[in-house]
Amino acid sequence: EKAGFDHFMMKEIHEQPKAYRDTMGSRIDASGSKVVLDEIKMTEEQIGSIRNVHIVACGTAYHAGLVGKNIIEKLARIPVEVDVASEYRYRSPIITPNTLVVVVSQSGETADTLAALREAKRCGARVVAITNVVGSSVAREADDVIVTWAGPEIAVASTKAYTSQLIAFYLFGLYLAQTLGTQEAGYIAGVVAELKQLPDKVERILGQAETFKDWAEQVASHENLFFIGRGLDYAVALEGSLKLKEISYIHSEAYAAGELKHGTLALIEDGIPVIALATQEELLEKTVSNIKEVKARGAHVFGLHAEGETELVKAVDQVFSIPHTLPLLSPALSVVPLQLLAYYASLARGNDVDKPRNLAKSVTVE
Ligand code: M6R
User: What does pTM read for this prediction?
Assistant: First the structure.
């Protein structure tokens, strides 16, 4: 049942290229230049009336939502807020009939996410669900459903569900842009072409998994570490940090790289591992200067950058190149090394990788 892998998590990490292909599937037209989302029943007029978007989810699905905000704002130019479902419910969010609420849930059964969906509907908003389970509560109660075709996810630590949620957001963002006319057809076709190349690029990263076994063995003896990044790299850093905490039990914090000097830099001391994500070309220089700040205080820095870049090499102790893609799409690649790092760190510490302590796969209580 684990298809030759030692753990479900590793099997599921390796199923990501297939999950990407299946989630894109027939949602890209035959010419490969635009997105077809027949499951969205919203009319053009309804889409045109959207004034703001609220993305609501928990845990890893919330982290997918943080990337989703960037995607929708960039492609469709609609303002987006992202909330943790257990906060959203109780903060009296301003929801109007022109608000589109997007709930994200692998299981479709998370209690807080379901309650947020109900609150949104009560206020007259239209709800789109991104879920991996056809027929789940969230799928049944939403107005529109985008199913992620990741297949069953057994390991408590979510991997392929997260990345297929990202693919769903790319498709949805492109669909909104097409409908609203916020991006030119040529630009959309270019993004679609790059999307289709992601599965092969994930396979290339998986072929280099040993690198992250090595990194994991170096960090496994530490009790604290940091993930830093800017923009989309920060969103991915949050997910990498959660993954590591969840299964290796190493405490880590994800920080917006530019925010370190406002307090957290005080925690950087000799030998502390820092995972620096620097895949966003236009932010590279700024991130490098933040890396220098932690290096100067003795941190051991592991860097992730886009293939072809050279600037990071001198600034860090060890570096890994992510296959080149559009900066907007890089989260769908850069998270994979962090999943592998968490997996091998958990293994190195002798933990139960698939069933971490204190946690359940589906959180159906508040
Ligand atoms: O089924 P859901 O997507 O609604 O679950 C949300 C979270 O409980 C879940 O993503 C959790 O954070 C994962 N165990 C993280 O790996």
Answer: 0.98
